Amino acid sequence: MGNREYISTTRLQPGMIIDQSITDATGRVMIKRNVYLDQYQIEYLMSRGISGVYITDTLEDDGKPGIEPAKKKIIIPSASKKVIARERVDDPTKVEMSETVKARVNEGIQYLFKNTNADNFSGAAMQVSKDLTEAIMTNSAVAIDINTLKVSDEYTFKHSVDVAMISMIIGKRHGLSRDEIREIGLAGLLHDMGKSKIPTEILNKPGKLTDEEFALMKRHPYDGYQILKDRGGFSNAVLAGVLQHHEKINAGGYPMGLSKDQIHLFGRLIAVADIFDALVTKRPYKDAFPMREAVEMIMSMTGELDISCINSFLGSVICYPVDSVVELSNGQLCKVVANVPMYPLRPRVVAIDTGEVYDLANDLKCANLIIM
After folding, report:
1. Is residue 139 domain-shared with residue 216, that is, in the same domain?
2. Domain limits for position 69
C-alpha cells in the first residue's frame, strides 16, 4: 500500500494519483480512483466545490500484486518543457455557462416536462433555447465538454440539455445558421418530451423491457411530436427533429422506419448527439462507457448514422484536453499539446521523460500506438 494523504483541492498538481473515485449526484463515475490527475480533472473538482481529496504516492493495480512506484508530482525536465511550450496549441473554445444560466435552464426544462399543457409552453421552451444559444455564441464556442454542463442531477433533464448543446455544437460545425442552431437546440431540448407519457418504472427499469414495454417506449418520438404540434409555435424542422431522432439511415429506426433521404437533417444530427450522451451517462440499467469507447462506437455506426453528421461530431468533441497527462501503449507518460480536428482519439502529445513528439493522427510511425 502507498502513503495515503488528504489534501486541499487547491494544492492538487497534475500527475498526482487520486485515491478515491469521484461521482456525480446520479452515481456516474467522473474521475476513477487510481489514475493520474490532469489539469482538466482538477478544474472539474474545483467547479464541483470539492474542498479536498485523498491522494497516494503509489499507483496500484486494482489491489493486485505488482505495484508501480510513482511520484506525487510529475517532474518535467526543462528540455521537455521547451518542447511542450513549442508544440502546445490551445483547445478550441468550449461551451461555458454561468451558474445563473444553468439554474435558469434547469428550472426551465423541469417546467416544460411537468407542464406540457401550459399556455406559455412554447415561449418557455424558446427562452431556454435562447439561453443555450447565447452560451454558444457569446464565446464563439465550437467544442463541447459535457462534464461542465451539468444543470441537473435528474437524468431526463440533464440528458435533454446535453443533447441540445451537443446538437447545437455539431450543427454549428455542420454549417447551420444562428437561427438553425437555436432551432436544433429547441428540438434537442424537447426530443424526449414524449417520455413524459411513459411510466417511470418503465423508463428506469433495470432489466430487459418486455415486448409491450418496448413498443410503448418506441412511441415517445411520436408522442413528443404530437405534444409540440398541439401546443403550436414550433417550426416543421423542430417537429421533424423530435419525431425522427431515433430514425436510422438504413431504415432500421423508429417510429416510422425512414431511410436517409427521408430523415430531416435535424433528426440525423440529434441522433448522433442522443446516442453519444446516452453512452457516456450512467443509468439504472447500464454503466457509463468511457468517452474513448463512446466515440469509437459512434465512429463504427456509419451504417446507421449519417457519415457527414458523424464527421461534424468528430470535429467538435474533445476527449483529451490540452495539458492532460496520458499514458501511451508503449508505456510513455505524455502531455497532450494539441488536438487534431476530426481525430479526437489521436492528439499530438509530448513524452514527459524524453521530450519526444508523438503525432498520433498524422505520423505513420505512431500508427500502432494508442492512449491507454
Report:
1. yes
2. 4-74
For residue 119, what is its C-alpha cell?
399556455
Q: pLDDT tens digit string along 257-266?
A: 999 999 999 9
Do residue 173 and residue 233 come from a single domain? yes
d(CA 41, CA 119): 43
Cis peptide before 255 (omega within 30 of 0): yes
> CA 339, CA 192: separation in Å to the nearest integer?
33
348 SS3 class? strand
Rounded to the nearest 5 degrees, what angle is found at the Cα of 158, between the Cα atoms of 291 and 287? 45
What's the rounded Cα separation, in Å, for the pair 104 and 67?
47
Whether 47 contacts 39, CB under 8 Å: no
Contact criterion met (CB below 8 Å) for 95 and 141: yes
Amino acid at position 117, single letter:
N
Cα 280 from Cα 162, distance rounded (Å): 11
Radius of gyration over every alpha carbon of the chain, rounded to an integer in angstroms: 22
Cα end-to-end distance, the chain, whole Å: 23
pLDDT at 355: 96
| The three cell numbers locating residue 75 | 517532474
Overall average pLDDT of the 209-233 stretch: 93
The number of domains in the chain is 3
Contacts for 105-111: CB closer than 8 Å, 24+ residues apart? 105/131, 105/132, 105/151, 105/161, 106/151, 106/152, 106/157, 106/161, 109/151, 109/152, 109/157, 109/160, 109/161, 109/189, 110/152, 110/154, 110/157
> For the chain, where are the alpha helices, taking DSSP H only?
39-47, 78-87, 99-114, 121-138, 155-174, 178-189, 200-203, 211-217, 220-231, 236-244, 265-279, 291-299, 307-314
